[in-house]
Design goal:
By secondary structure, the protein is an alpha/beta fold. It is built from 19 helices and 20 strands. It has five domains: 2-62; 71-122, no CATH class; 141-228 and 320-326 and 387-448, Rossmann fold (3-Layer(aba) Sandwich), CATH 3.40.50; 238-312, SH3 type barrels (Roll); 458-535, no CATH class. Strands 5-10-6-7-8-9 form a six-stranded antiparallel sheet. Strands 3-18-17-4-16 form a five-stranded parallel sheet, with helices on both faces. A five-stranded antiparallel sheet has the order 14-13-12-11-15.
Length: 536
Amino acid sequence: MQAGAADLAADAGRRVTTYERVGVVEEIAARRALSFQQDHGIGKLQFQIGEKLAEISNLERTGTKDGRKIMLVMDESSMTGAEDTLAVTKLGRDFGSRVVLQGDVKQHGSVPAGRAFEQAQQAGMKTSRLEETRRFDNATAQAKAAASLLAKGKIGEAIERLDRFEVDQSELAKTAADRYMVSLTELKAKGIAEPKIGVVTLTNADRKDVNAAVHTALADAGLVGREQFVKTHLDDRKLTTAEHLNVGLLSASNTDTLIFRKGYREIGVKNGDAVRVVGFDVDKNRVTIENRAGKKIQFDPRMQDYFTAVKTETRTYSVGDKIEARANIKFEDKEVARITNGTRGVVSAIDKDSATIQWTDFIADGKGTKPKATLRELRMTNDQLRFVDLAYAHTSVKEQGASNDRELFVVSQTGAKIIKKEAAYVAGTRGKDNTEVITSDYATMLKNAGKETQKTTAIDLKKKPQEARKAQVLAGLEGQGQATAQVQGKGIAAGAGQQQGANQAPSAAQTKQQPAKSTEQERQAQRVRNLGFTLE
């Protein structure tokens, strides 16, 4: 690259210094060329090239143009899978940076494979623990007591301490909306001008019911516009990669639309197309769609697999409603930055064809300070509005990391059956003022709340046979009446370091202290070493 830069400089030098004197006009041009060389010429060009080369070198070494050392901080690390955690740590290694993983293993784990954050701590990663939180300094006595019990893993006792409302299943969403309105009034009376109220549910069905109920309560109270508009919404069926390749599961999930994230010319779809599903052939594993040209096409989702399965629903909005993006939303105008999944906003205007949303973006200043909230107002078409939803209630996974003035934990009969300790912990530690439980099946909720979410990783699968073999070897040695053996696990398999240790000659002192081994003992010792252990 440096050679190329030198050639460029030489070429520029030839172009600005070579001329032929023919007349006055040419002489004037030559003087101008000489002046350009002096003011903007080769010296400055070489300096600029050197400057860019230095920036490239700095980027390669440290990740910054000016060569500053950086620290990579990944928040909510417990929710990050093994692959993404590896990518971040590799980036830190390549840049020579310190990597800080922040998170809470008591909360939800990662959806992708792995428990990297927890297992890194178990493997000896340097760890600092936050023993005290100031979030609950001004909380109610019952909320403080519950938070303390949750931190100790006493989930059932914590739930029993919280304010509770037990209702029939048919009244659950309405009761949650009523408590939302009461909380607004109470928090404003405490001097909080714009109270933040979080609502946690355990199922998406409950989330949608509560969202609709809160919208209705706000409209009835005149806190959002009374004029309401019904918009189409595409609800993600949340299928795994394997599930969306199976036509039987696509059909069972009530999928009626596919959003393609990649173009497939052979079936007539482009990136971003939302196509209607007109039929399923479960036996042949085929889906029939109607593409944008109106043509019916049958395809195998295992071949054209880059799509999201959704179900067409409706949502009702008014001016003043709180909403959020449920997917990344792009604009035809390339100058307009996309709205990223999870971004919150408020409806500032709405009609039958569109809505204007005031979005809240959090933008970092590049100096390591906390990102600041920045507002931008954008007009959204009805097609774009298909990917937004009301944002009063969230599932516990989505609510993780939030901090609200008050939290409502809404648990239906279905939610009570599937609740786990991680969800209870998240719900019980979001509210700075108070947390309330609203449930239609308190007994079942209390019974299941302390259960852990079991997630087996490849490391776990490797450890189980390793531990079993360890026990078998020890049992065999003890059964033969031999000297007590201490077996130490050295990982999944014997490493190079172990082999090197085995080949090193013992010191004189070690030789003197070690009793001679019989042939049988040596055979057993070799057997243990072959299994990846060391016999001492």
